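Entry 12.
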Amino acid sequence: MEEFERVLTKVKIALNASSFGNKSFLQASIQYIIQSINYSLILKRTTMKRFKLFLLALGLVASTTAFAANPAPISEGNPTSKELKKMLNDPEFLVEHDMHAEVLFTITENKEIKVLSVATENEELVNYIKTRLNNEILDADLEIGKQYVVPFKIKAEK
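Predicted 3D structure (tokens):
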């Protein structure tokens, strides 16, 4: 790119120093081409600057989003996990096969559970977990407003 600009500058100097009394068709054509090239170079530079700025903004948004919603996992042996499982005992539907779900929830100021999402393919299980856990009081030492994720397994009835 820099070499092209140097050649372009030499062509401009040569045209200005030429001994044409009036502008010839050739000189006018070359000057028009040079102006077009200059315009396209300026346009490419501003476009690249905008593109770089867009990529920077996109990177900032992506990194902020990734760190903002990082839920804390609750392990299976944890007392909080055990209390949540007690709330989900005795499902009201027939469990024909083992089911798994990951529940994303938060705790309100009143220590109530607010289920944010349930990751499973079984819609009946999603509704069951939400109706059993939403607005229930959880007596656990969890940070208010923070998001938590807990895995659940429901075994098939034999």
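Annotation: The chain is about 50% helix and 15% strand. The chain has a mean pLDDT of 75.
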